[in-house]
Specification:
- By secondary structure, the protein is mainly beta.
- It has two helices and 35 strands.
- The strands form four sheets. The protein has a 22-stranded parallel beta sheet that branches. Strands 1, 2, 3, 4, 5, 6 and 35 form a seven-stranded antiparallel beta sheet that branches. A four-stranded parallel beta sheet has the order 20-23-26-29, with no helix packed on it.
Length: 413
């Protein structure tokens, strides 16, 4: 009897031990995957540094990462309380991330390893004609959206919108809140986040080019899976020469901007009034630390072959007229986190892009005149009251500003 009892006790202890070993191994197995995921997160941070927000031309060898003979950039081994991970980034245009997490089980004198491979794609900053963090209100005199492609001669002319060759990708998107289509003519798809929604007025239309006017929502043209990051705009530089007046071909200009960087640090910001004109003759960047206000018939004139990137740090900004001689890549507006209000008040054609993720973007020009907006915008909220046609340039998805790399696929190996 004693032998049988001892044998039973031994069997029970053995079973208990193996249950414990199984539990420990399972915990280590799960922890190893968590460490591999931590390596992927570090790699994405290496590929998407905040200081290089609008480009993927980053130094993959920064922060102690080293290019080894396998053609990949390796981070130093990262040791955490639960184990360690090793991670590497390929030198491809769209980099692969290889990350392995290791957890040692002291009681078994064994190490558990799990490895993942991640592929990436570049994320365009402008993914829709109109994109907002929260609500979009398309109130106005028959607002309309559609699309074209400035790099496709079959869907543009000299890089500009041409109505007979238009396309139906004039999408309107919001990560949260409501899209109020009202009586707008949306030739594209409306997107919201899972908790968002939309409303359409009696004359509203959302659909492709063949969908009838005032036809309501075409099936398949509303999706509630929209997800977009709106990263902050950082100051582009700390110091630069101030903009200055000048004369060109006998005309006096309030600012003459050539090739290079400029910075306006006046406490009251910039206030351009009727008669004030800015001429851009080169590839220029201007950083205004205060407000940027255009009123009356003030103008920004961008010469052929020139471009302007305007960064605004003040709370308020307004734009009347930007006379671009190029296409949508000619003018870009970037609002820093402190820029909370931007108004488009002119009655002229607007060619360019607007990115100010903390601002309420209001469009109040037009009246009975149709204002064409060729390009795209991404802002906090959108409110309008006018007659606006938005033509999304699909080339912005290929050649426009980038918000960095995102995961395309994830596989455990």
């Amino acid at each position: 009897a004693t032998f049988v009892l001892g044998l039973g006790l031994a069997s029970y202890l053995t079973l208990t031990r193996w249950q414990h070993v199984s539990t420990v191994r399972s915990q280590a197995w799960n922890a190893a995957l968590g460490l591999a995921e931590a390596g992927v997160e570090e790699a994405l941070a290496q590929l998407n540094p905040a200081a290089r927000l609008f480009t993927t031309n980053v130094n993959r060898g920064a922060n102690g990462w080293t290019l080894l003979s396998d053609g990949m950039y390796h981070a130093p081994r990262r040791t955490l309380p639960s184990g360690y991970y090793e991670v590497a980034i390929s030198s491809d245009l769209y980099p692969r991330i290889c990350s392995t997490g290791y957890v040692t089980i002291p009681t078994l004198s064994a190490t558990v390893a799990r490895a993942v491979t991640v592929t990436t794609v570049e994320t365009a900053l402008f993914r829709a004609a109109l994109a907002a963090r929260v609500d979009i209100d398309l109130k106005g005199n028959k607002v309309a959206t559609d699309s074209f492609d400035s790099m496709d001669p079959l869907h543009s002319t000299n890089g500009l919108y041409y109505a007979p060759w238009r396309k139906a990708n004039g999408d309107v998107a919001s990560t949260d809140g409501i899209i109020n289509v009202q009586n707008a003519d949306i030739r594209g798809t409306i997107y919201t986040g899972p908790a968002g929604g939309y409303s359409i007025g009696p004359e509203g239309t959302v659909g492709d080019l063949s969908w009838p006017l005032a036809g309501g929502l075409q099936p398949g043209h509303y999706k509630n899976d929209f997800n977009m990051d709106f990263p902050d705009v950082l100051p582009p530089y700390e110091t630069a020469v101030p903009p200055a007046s000048g004369t060109f071909n006998g005309t006096n200009y309030t600012w003459m901007l050539g090739e290079g960087d400029y910075m306006c640090t006046a406490p009251k910001g910039v206030d351009l009034k009727t008669g004030d004109e800015v001429l851009v003759t080169g590839k220029a960047r201007v950083y205004v630390t205060g407000d940027f206000i255009m009123s009356g018939s003030s103008k920004i004139i961008i010469a052929p072959g020139a471009s302007l990137q305007l960064y605004v740090g003040g709370a308020k900004a307004s734009i009347t007229s930007v006379n671009n001689a190029g296409n949508c890549a000619t003018f870009g507006y970037f609002g820093l986190p402190s820029n909370t209000a931007l108004a488009l008040t002119g009655n002229d054609l607007f060619l360019g892009t607007i990115y100010t993720p903390n601002a309420e973007f209001t469009l109040g020009g037009g009246g009975n005149t149709t204002v064409d907006f060729q390009g795209a915008c991404a802002v906090n909220t959108i409110k309008m009251n006018g007659h606006f046609n938005f033509h999304y340039d699909e080339n912005l998805r290929r050649k426009g500003p980038s918000s960095g790399y995102r995961i395309a696929s994830w596989n455990e190996i």
